[in-house]
Amino acid sequence: xxxxxxxxxxxxxxxxxxxxxxxxxxxxxxxxxxxxxxxxxxxxxxxxxxxxxxxxxxxxxxxxxxxxxxxxxxxxxxxxxxxxxxxxxxxxxxxxxxxxxxxxxxxxxxxxxxxxxxxxxxxxxxxxxxxxxxxxxxxxxxxxxxxxxxxxxxxxxxxxxxxxxxxxxxxxxxxxxxxxxxxxxxxxxxx
Length: 191
Fold this sequence. Notes:
The chain is α/β, with parallel strands linked by helices. The chain is about 35% helix and about 25% strand.
């Protein structure tokens, strides 16, 4: 078709599924936020994956929607929207897993981390969980866009170069789009 452009981008939506996310509506708000980002990425043609993580005797990465699946079925959407909570959150390990995964992909790359704040859990010897996450995000390649979405009013700007704070998923468009829009412009070519 005339005027059709090809989008070459990959994104991972990473959800903190630690025990603190069980407080109030945090897990549900994070899942709903992932649904919103999923719809945005699907509508503009960006390949995406939705993963949650928690830490208890190691960091567990649970894929809610894999890169290869369409994400359009009722089951896909229900799996993305299903809240889950576990134990601790060693964000540094989970973020590094996502960054390593994205680094192997072509095109523009984006990682969105949805969390209720501070990491707590295992970290490499000599580093606190906070220091480990800062080390990982500071060492992230500039070729991967990195955004922290702090839910339940939690500030994630200490860890992520681009960060917004929301109280519930209804604020995503208002708060996250001003940061997401310039990163998406790099991914989505103009016709």
